[in-house]
Every structure is written in structure tokens, then in C-alpha cells.
Amino acid sequence: MKEYRQIINDLCGKIHTGLVDFDKPRSEASMPTQASSEFITNKQQGDWAEDVLFRAINENSSNIVAVRYGKSDDLVAGDEGFEAFFNEYQEELDNIGKRPDLLLFRKEDFDKKLGYDISKYDKCVVDEYVRKAIAGIEVRSSAFLIDKYMDEASKVVNDNTARALELKQLILGEYLDLLQEKRPSMIPILEQLDETSIKILDFRVPSWRSSERLQELSSIFSELKQCLKNIQKRNTLSITPKVEDLKVVRKWINTYNVPHFYVQVFFDKVYGISFKQILELISDPSLEDERFFVEQDTKNQNKTTIKIPSQDGICLVSKALKEPYHQSVRKELNKGRLLFYVKFDGGEACLDKINFDELFDCNL
């Protein structure tokens, strides 16, 4: 049987270099010079997401222990000592790869002396211990209630589908003669339009103006086109690995041979997917814009991000999360610059044992 790291390397070799070239060194990151309130709020949200998963595992598991591992610090650009922290982190990425935020250990392998947080220990102290982990988890966060988002997205699709089918009947019923004259090729397309084909149909909107009826027909086609856009646009929330992280995650896997996972924490649900499945998806070009999307993420410094619909992952909670408390915090930077951001505390997640065990191949 192949080692986990070899399975991952084989998959990386199948991914087109236009998406990520694993043979090239990672691009050097530019050190940020100034933090923003939004950046710190997002960081606080990410810290909360990690904490709520960490507590959910350790408070509810009889056999598994979650340990904090990811490189983390409260320093942000503009703080004294940030430059040294940033440079040390870049060096670590090149040496061992990107540490996942959490490690999972079987209870019998858990080292009580090292405790529940090994993020500050030197590599030489924890190196062999890390190899005993059964999983590494990269925690991502999203400031959404996914159930409400999906309900609204479903309503948009249903309403636009109903309206599109109405417009189809209107065109074929009252404007068929004009269509036969001006664009007969559209007739069989419209006749086949249903709740399935509507998800892929596309056409060029005519701009007829030479008669009142032709103007009316053009306007109807324009509305139909907008309905199709509303139906066909990506209307799911996603698990969001950054393309630039793929190389450093692979580096970590090659260093420790521990299975790696992404977990996306929303404010009501938690979804997980294996790094192996992510690579399987993006190595198949036919799945792009269907099972995964590649986009510049404006909310994350325009970094290229792979977006995998959350429902393609596994839901790790059995009921909605209990939301955290939040409060405004004042932070003073050098030269007297002030930032105000949101800090999150508390909240609870009730894990779905069956789904958790399925994803991580363990016995929670």
C-alpha cells in the first residue's frame, strides 16, 4: 500500500501547471507594513473558529485529543517584533511547510507533558511527536449563517426558474411568428427549456428595434437572459483553500506523512474535506466551474482561492452552533495609530460523531 505522502505527490503531479506548478519554488511573500481593522477582525474570527473546533473535540471525545499546533501570534503588521516573526514564519514554510492549525492524536499517543498547545515549541522538541498525529486540520472561517444563505439562494433559483418558464411560454405563444422570421434557431432551444436545461442554456440577446413587437421580444429575451444568469451563478458557500497554500501544505505532508484536512467553520455549521479530495477535484479540469471554482478573493488580498461548495464536504455538527459573544476592542499601534476590531468569545459546536469518524477515519 502506498504511503499517504506518495498518494498526495501522485495527485499533485496530475494538476495542471496553469493552476499550480509544484516543481517551482513557492513565491516569496511580501511582508505587510500596516494592519487594518478588517484584517484583525478576520484574524480574530479565524482564532475563534479554531477554538470552537478545538473545544468541541476535547470536550466530547473519549478517544481523540485535539492539540494546537499552527504558527500563531497576536502580533500584526505595525507591532514591535512583527518583522522577526514574519521572517521566521517564512523560513519555517520553506523548511517543513505550513503547519495545520490543529493536530488530532489518539488518546494513548497524547503527551500530557507537552499539553494541548505545542505551537510555541521548537521543531526539534515536537518533531517525532507530530509524526504520531492521525490528522492535521487547517481551519478556515466564514462570517455567514450557511442555512439562511442556502435558503435564500434556493428561493432565488426557484423564483427565476418559474419566471424563465413563464417567459418561454410567452415567447412561443405570442411571438412565434417573429421568431420564425428573425431567429428560427432559437425555437428548438426554447422548446427544450426546462428545469434541467435552464442550468446550462445560454444565448445572445437580440437588439431588435425596427418595430414595437420586435422591441417587446428583445426586452423579453433580455429578462430571460437575466433569469438564466441568476440561476447559473455560483450560489453556494465554499470551503476555501488558497492556491498559494497548496505547495506548503504538500511540503508539510512530505515532512510528516500525516493526513491533512480543511475544515470551514460558519456561524451555524461546520464542514470538512480532506486535502486528498481537494487535489482529486482540481486535478480534473472537467470539474472546474461545476465542482470547484478558482477565483481572486477580494476579501483575502485578491489571493487566488479554490472554492469548493460546502455541501461537497462533510457536515461535522449535528445541530446549529451556539454563536459566540462579540465585543469591540481598541488596539494602539506605533506612532499612536488606533485600530478598532471585533473580538469573539465562547460559542459551542455539537459534533456529529458518525460524520466526524467518517472524515477523519477515527473513533471520536
Verbal overview:
41% of the residues lie in helices and 16% in strands. It has helices spanning 4-12, 37-60, 82-95, 123-130, 146-174, 176-182, 186-191, 212-232, 243-256, 275-282, 353-360; strands at residues 64-68, 102-106, 135-141, 238-239, 260-265, 270-274, 293-297, 303-309, 314-315, 325-332, 338-345. The chain is of the alpha+beta class and 364 residues long. The protein has 2 domains: 4-144 and 238-360, no CATH class; 147-232. Helix 1 (4-12) runs antiparallel to helix 9 (243-256), helix 1 packs parallel to helix 10 (275-282) and helix 5 (146-174) runs antiparallel to helix 8. The longest helix has 29 residues, at 146-174. It has a 6-stranded mixed sheet with strand order 1-2-3-5-6-9. A 3-stranded antiparallel sheet has the order 4-8-7, with no helix packed on it. Strands 10-11 form a two-stranded antiparallel sheet. The radius of gyration is 25 Å and the shape is elongated. The mean pLDDT is 91.
Helix content bin: 40-55%
Mind telling me the C-alpha Rg? 25 Å
Q: Supply the number of structural domains.
A: 2
Q: Quote the distance from N terminus to C terminus.
A: 25 Å
Structural class: alpha+beta
Percent in strands? 15-25%
The SSE order reads HHEHEHEHHHHEHEEHEEEEEH
Strand order of the largest sheet: 1-2-3-5-6-9
Which runs of at least 5 residues are low in confidence (pLDDT < 50)? none
Average predicted local confidence, pLDDT:
91
Number of strands: 11
Shape: elongated
**Total of helices:** 11
Q: Sketch the major β-sheet.
A: 6 strands, mixed
